[in-house]
Amino acid sequence: MTETVNSPDLIDGVYREGAPITDTKAPAGDISGKWTTRKFEAALVNPANRRKLSVIIVGTGLAGASAGATLGEAGYQVKSFCYQDSPRRAHSIAAQGGINAAKNYKGDGDSVHRLFYDTVKGGDYRSRETNVYRLAEVSADIIDQCVAQGVPFAREYGGLLDNRSFGGVQVSRTFYARGQTGQQLLIGAYQALERQIAAGTVEMYARHEMLELVVVDGKARGIIARDMVTGEIETHLADAVVLASGGYGNVFFLSTNAMGCNVTASWRAHRKGAYFGNPCYTQIHPTCIPQTGEHQSKLTLMSESLRNDGRIWVPKNSEDCDKNPREIAEEDRDYYLERIYPGFGNLVPRDIASRQAKNMCDEGRGVGPAVDGVRRGVYLDFGDAIERLGEEAVRSKYGNLFDMYAQITGENPYEVPMRIYPAVHYTMGGLWVDYDLQSSIPGLFVTGEANFSDHGANRLGASALMQGLADGYFVLPNTIRDYLAKGPFTKIAEDDPAVAEARESVEGRVARLMSINGTRTVDSYHKALGKIMWEKCGMERTEEGLREAIEEIRALRADFWTNVRVLGSAEGLNQSLEKAGRVADFLELGELMCIDALHRRESCGGHFRAESQTEDGEALRHDDEYAYVAAWEWGGDDGAPVLHKEDLVYDFIELKQRSYK
Amino acid sequence: MRISLKIWRQDGPTDEGRMVDYQLDDVSEDSSFLEMLDLLNEQLIAREEEPVAFDSDCREGICGMCGVVINGQAHGPERTTTCQLHMRSFDDGDEIIIEPWRADPFPVIKDLCVDRSSFDRIIQAGGFISANTGSAPDAHATPVPKEDADRAFMAAECIGCGACVAACPNAAGMLFMGAKVTHLGELPQGQPEREARVLAMTEQHDLEGFGGCTNLGECTRACPKGIPLNVISQLNADYRHAGYGGRG
Ligand SMILES: Cc1cc2nc3c(=O)[nH]c(=O)nc-3n(C[C@H](O)[C@H](O)[C@H](O)COP(=O)(O)OP(=O)(O)OC[C@H]3O[C@@H](n4cnc5c(N)ncnc54)[C@H](O)[C@@H]3O)c2cc1C
Ligand code: SF4
Ligand code: FES
Question: Which of A84, A141, A152 faces B156 most closely, judged by CB atoms?
């Protein structure tokens, strides 16, 4: 993208606009009937023919493992890939808080429509209505499926499932397994996957990293992967490919994501023609353990279920910031969320909670150790809850979170209030998909966090787990069937020019990374990129900052390709080489995120554009100009990205400006 | 803090391996054990020496990917995962010896990384409930007493890290297996396959070359998730029941 920098025909100097796009797969009719219609209209595949059809699934998180298990069970030939040593370790395992479902077990007025409404509103009207409705519709089946698999959700004494309210929602629709919901759901899906591996319908490739997509005659037909143990570059061909490779929050280096989370699978597909939707939409989570210093490799999230009982405050006076919090009198505390948003209090949506925390710290009222001269922390205080409910009750609800906090900080949260600060947590952007979860490359399907469709500009708590499992257990198996029914597909030879090209590009890239032999470590580039992204494309963005960020990332990327140092050999386990490939892709994605953020001159969801705010500092959306999905097409190594707009049409929900006051 | 390290270096599965000494000067007490290794690796790369390979992913104590033997103890001196061990657990000037998990069913891949796919194969043998997608009854159709659900949850917390095996002088995988058998066996959904499950898993366990349990309890002392020894009693009881009284 370097040569075109100031070409006059470019918009904002950085991108072009292409033809608008639409989703052509959602059937007509009332929203509540669309999914039934689509399932009915999707062609069937005779069980005897399924064996002859093959699918590659990259990823074994909730989205990938559930899809693998279900497609395997249906009788297709599945090859499943993950970069960890076992599919059970996918990043979904880290999710703490819970999973939503419209079961209305509490009889508090929940329904499919309300879950749908809350999700669209929570996403600040930037998600696709049809997809979200379907998500809410299948949500109840997810819980049934998981319980049948033996997922030990929390129960009441009567033996029935318990629910809680979560992340700014006023009904109790969240199912949970203490603070380890993701772990338990993933173990359930993993066990279902292992069952299919034993049955011979799924072949598992752990410690394998997908490094390229194979596209033949315009259709996704396979992947090129590196066996991370032997270093061998392998070709895997199939009739369709599913990416369930998770989110790209690690572009920020410091995030709550697992260390290996990356964008490579999605990015390689993007470079082969898959559009990237809303790349700048990052979710910042309000309740993470604050950073303590430069040595840090990641940030740890604490479930925001803590906001149900914990009260958030900072000292009213900055002179009190280094005092023992228990010695700060009640009247000297500013419970700022309860003050500014009395209706929602500590349960305001994540982006508001995050931004207000940052404001408090920027004002000089933050607490805890200073990093780069600023104290970045606010109190999350359970003092009142312990008084009201007793320490035991608090322990039984949040014990493992408190232990985790104590382990990491060396402080006892039963005695001293916890400190929290926002951190990058999730990415709502991802590869663009239609209602069938198919990308702009036929035969390439994208599920879970890797796609863009369901969360808009801000994701409600407990809805990513729901989406991953909805996609994998219920949606994809029906929609991919329609595609596979068009098979059998012509067999592709391993020496097909398209396959050879994909393979050679991977080999060339590995060889190039190994031969640069510069002076800087891969991590140092990643950290530098992360700082640019957090400062300039994070919680708050400005036109000027984004323009600077684009230039800085371009310079960093150029430096990377001449000066990175990757030691060791490509034949065998080489973690520096793995990281180098991922960082190289992050360096390209980072620029696209900034371009996307630059072009979207509105504040929306978790994306606060400083130039677009109301008089009292709240995010100001511009529905007249920006009620669309930004789907970016790769413009080539030397070209600029091309923006395709998909207008978001709300037929069943009225677009409203948000107000939490 | 100043720390002296002795780390097992092994180029590949067939390499003999050796202990190598390293010195680190500026380690923050607040950094985690793995962040300390990151720091070492940055310095090694600067000196053009190949960094130490070790596994980790979540770094939050939940994925089970990390795990090394530290001064002879699996996951080190505290009862937690390697990634959740912090340098404040050590003293300035300490010497720390770091080795990979040692057990035949966990062959070394490189340096501190081992292959634990034998655990996955034990799960494949029967560590699941056969529930096809889309056919499940309403979740409230089968109430589960809270005590059972809680005990199932406790056992389900196993992260599959392998510390129990590394800590066991016999390299038994019984705590890991007992945790799964207890998790599924406590639930009504797990009953139909209960006997077949325990027999198949045990058979696979032995095929993989894990040793037998002699009740030493090293496994539970090393387990970062506090899986109790009584899951092994449950495993044994289920096994006996399946072997003699059950369908066998
Ligand atoms: C700390 C934390 C807490 C969270 N808590 C909640 C919560 O309470 N509720 C909620 O709803 N959501 C929560 N989330 C979000 C949610 O966990 C994720 O969005 C979701 O689990 C993503 O699932 P996934 O299957 O799409 O991807 P992942 O689980 O990330 O799986 C990605 C898979 O892809 C594989 N992969 C990636 N790249 C490649 C490649 N190139 N080659 C081969 N394999 C590859 C990986 O090995 C892995 O198997 C939380 C997230 C975090 C970080
Ligand atoms: S039982 Fe404990 S030590 Fe063994 S694998 Fe499970 S969590 Fe690790
Ligand atoms: S890295 Fe996941 S448990 Fe340690």
Answer: A152
